[in-house]
Amino acid sequence: METKENGEDEQQVVNPWKVDAKDGGKIDYDKLIDQFGCQRLDQSLVNRVHRLTSRPPHVFLRRGVFFAHRDFNEILDAYEKGEKFYLYTGRGPSSEALHLGHLIPFMFTKYLQDAFKVPLVIQLTDDEKCMWKNLAVEESQRLARENAKDIIACGFDITRTFIFSDFDYVGGAFYKNMVKVGKCVTYNKVVGIFGFTGEDHIGKVSFPPVQAVPSFPSSFPHLFSGQDNLRCLIPCAIDQDPYFRMTRDVAPRIGYHKPALIEASFFPALQGETGKMSASDPNSAIYVTDSAKDIGSKINKFAFSGGRDSIEKHRELGANLEVDIPIKYLRFFLEDDSELDYIEKEYGAGRMLTGEVKQRLIQVLTEIVERHCRARAAVTDEMVDAFMAVRPLPNMFN
Amino acid sequence: MGFSKEQLLARLKELQIDFSQYDHPVVLTAKYVGHLGGGISKNLFLKDKKSRFYIVSALAETKVDLKVLSVRLGLGKGGLRMAPEEALGEILQVPLGCVTPLSLVNESARNVSLLLDQRFKSQEFCFFHPLSNDMSISLNTNGLDKFLKSIERDPSYVDLEANPSVGKDQPPDLASLVPSNSLVLPDPPETPASSKGRTENKVSVGNKSTTSTAITSKPSINAQDRPANITDVGKMVDDLLDMTSSLLLKEITENFKEHGEELGEVLSKKIKSRLAAELHSTIMMFKNTAYTEGFHAGVNHHPKRTY
């Protein structure tokens, strides 16, 4: 079936380097699922996760933040039979400033690691940022290490986690797989998937295999030697889907399982769905370095509200929950389902005011950011070295 | 202990680096060697808000603007100050008035970043203090580079007078020279303005800032003894019990009227859900720190003697 592979449509554009909704509107996720050809993550799968892990599913699953998947049910089938899998996620270290949106895949991956008791590899694509953002090699390596500290602060278990940067790790078995993958993807195909042009340099064109091969256990001989059959699950934001469509296409041709994917929707900017979260606008997002005061003032001043212009109108019509940012953020971060339901009901009916909702949000976010800050302060360079050391992980499935 | 002047000179000779030495009374200015030709160095020992240290070594005539350097290093405006007097002795292990790139030979200075004036290269030789200010030695840049490489440092020559614009698309050009040391202390309370007179090697006196302010009322980690704190089991148990009992008291007073007999059960549920994330984070950090310390020990351990 001919789908437009690089996510281009007359309307919305979604690929690893560009996310644009139609005419400045919202991203249509149903259409995206259709376009990409992945599956909706429905309630029955969420219930299945609950059963298999004997613990309540993560808030992101309950609220549909992670809403799409490829072959997640196969991973669960195998898991039920006693077959393990490993997790693979990553970050492109393009800036030192991390905001909450950046943390979302990592928070979810940590939950998966704990719930299923499986190992995790985290790829820092310093080479990619060096090429796409024109950073010096040393600077991208430095950013990778700095970002690693924030990632570690999300609470990953060092006895089951391997963090690596491309500049450090590419070579050996990893590179052999890169060449195998490269041989299976024509130039035309990669142009079709990623939209490269004749003006793009060859570094970019040959990058895709780097992000593909961590899906194959043989890329990590120090971890998975002798386990060529081990499956891989990739939690990521849905804009990364093109990389892994390519990978899934190639995998059976070189004798590996197709990696499974579990995909998240985008985290909205403070100014609303149509706004863009950008590193250069500190008021478009909540950063992990923000103080309680900053968080308070950002939410109060910049969070786009669905409340009405006047109190009377608000009491009459209720808030517009579709565009209200504080409600959307609470959907991501307020753990208590019954409290969220209550707030949505009261706010939607106009009995609760925007100020109260924002207050609650500020509390929730401050707790998260402060906890992250404390954990971050405990991360030393030695700890980063240990997470990034090429070492065996003997208890990774315990 | 730090290197002595004699040890340093002996090391330079070992490395076959040419230099000439001039003894003179201890002074804070260059009045005794000003007539000898060559370039006089002025050396600044600087500190940023995250307590990372820098030596900026420049020709006396080069204008060094700390505000510009701060932005070029990616520290924002006003991120660089003169380091306090105590740091000179603690980190560089040299006396007052004696900041010199040669002090990087000391282990204690291993995380200090060095910025060298590229104008040194146009000089036949330059004068530096060899760890004490009763002598100056003249070295050319080849000699200096050779010495730095011998202590595993990369000589970084920088156009100190340049003022490139820094913004979204132009990252700070000197950002790679910021040390990535392990200790990240919280922002110290503001030190009084450092004295502006910048004669060679003068280091201003600032208030030593050792107190770290607790960020929240929850048990915070004092960064200075951070690793010890985290693996201190007794302290962790105390902190966790404190957290639990204060939450308990708060919830009792809030919920007493509402729940009456069922108070116990309601509270127990609340406590479990509110504390779970906190406990998890703390204990995971504990595990990771313990592993890291073990790993470090393993990497550095001396194998058993078999003879």
From TrEMBL, chain A:
Keyword line: Aminoacyl-tRNA synthetase, ATP-binding, Cytoplasm, Ligase, Nucleotide-binding, Protein biosynthesis
GO molecular function (one): tryptophan-tRNA ligase activity
Known EC number: 6.1.1.2
CDD domains from the UniProt entry: TrpRS_core
Entries under InterPro entries matching the protein: aa-tRNA-synth_I_CS (IPR001412), aa-tRNA-synth_Ic (IPR002305), Rossmann-like_a/b/a_fold (IPR014729), Trp-tRNA-ligase (IPR002306)
Family: Belongs to the class-I aminoacyl-tRNA synthetase family.
Protein name: Tryptophan--tRNA ligase, cytoplasmic
Annotated source species: Rubus argutus
Automatic annotation (TrEMBL), chain B:
GO MF, any single term: aminoacyl-tRNA deacylase activity
SUPFAM superfamilies to which the protein is assigned, alphabetical: YbaK/ProRS associated domain
Record CDD domains: PrdX_deacylase
Gene3D superfamilies: YbaK/aminoacyl-tRNA synthetase-associated domain
Domain YbaK/aminoacyl-tRNA synthetase-associated, residue spans: 30-147
Family matches, as Pfam families: tRNA_edit
Superkingdom of origin organism: Eukaryota
Compositionally biased region (Polar residues): 192-223
Region (Disordered): 161-226
Protein family according to the UniProt entry: Belongs to the PRORSD1 family.
Protein name as it appears in the record: YbaK/aminoacyl-tRNA synthetase-associated domain-containing protein
